[in-house]
Amino acid sequence: PRPILLTRHGESQDNVRGRIGGDSVLSDSGNIYSKKLAHFVEKRLKSERTASIWTSTLQRTIITATPIVGFPKVQWRALDEINAGVCDGMAYEEIKRNMPEEYQSRKNDKLRYRYPRGESYLDVIQRLEPVIIELERQRAPVVVISHQAVLRALYAYFADKPLKEIPHIEVPLHTIIEIQMGVTGVQEKRYKLMD
Ligand code: G3H
């Protein structure tokens, strides 16, 4: 069996401010996570001849991967966070106050709701297809450092969760989800690296 490690980026400055989207750097706690993650990955994958680290093209995932050394890194635009379009950079409270109809439509159907000039969860699921094909093809371990909405979709694929649950799956910060792809199926372990 070979592991696929899924993790969100370390806490970002926008996470602290409660803003969605953006391209901010990490908070102090996010920076601590990046070091703990590197330590974990180096220990977990030290016996593996090859492994690779995949990130999105956004700073918060690239910075989270920085302390990990000795493995090739690949940036995928398809791993970027759901595009919140006109709501990019806003807090949920602001959306609720300034664009109540948008807020309500998303609440009614989070899977299909598409942000104006942005994406829906269904759009994200679709753009992940090449990533999933490549993940399945790889024979070596892969560490995927990405974002909440994207990881919900990736995790759902491996854990065989129904579409409608995807937007609500819990993918906490500072936690590694290890998926083991074996002949008998998929096994999962979680490592919470910080409180
Ligand atoms: O910035 C986007 C969030 O990571 C996605 O969360 O789909 O629950 O609003 P949400």
Can you offer a commentary on this structure?
This is CBM20 domain-containing protein. It comes from Dendrobium thyrsiflorum. The protein has 195 residues and is of the alpha/beta class. A 6-stranded mixed sheet has the order 3-2-4-1-5-6, with helices on both faces. The chain has helices at 13-17, 28-44, 59-65, 92-98, 100-108, 121-127, 129-137, 148-159, and strands at residues 2-8, 52-55, 73-75, 142-146, 175-182, 185-192. The longest helix is centred in the first third of the chain and has 17 residues, at 28-44. The mean pLDDT is 96. Strand 2 (52-55), helix 3 (59-65) and strand 3 (73-75) form a beta-alpha-beta unit. Helices cover 37% and strands 18% of the residues. The site of glyceraldehyde-3-phosphate (G3H) has 8 residues, from helix 8. Glyceraldehyde-3-phosphate (G3H) binds next to helix 8.
Structural class: alpha/beta
**End-to-end CA span:** 29 Å
What string gives the helices and strands in order? EHHEHEHHHHEHEE
* Portion in strands: 15-25%
Oligomer: single chain
Protein name: CBM20 domain-containing protein
Summarize the structure.
By secondary structure, this protein is of the alpha/beta class. It has helices at residues 13-17, 28-44, 59-65, 92-98, 100-108, 121-127, 129-137, 148-159, and strands at residues 2-8, 52-55, 73-75, 142-146, 175-182, 185-192.
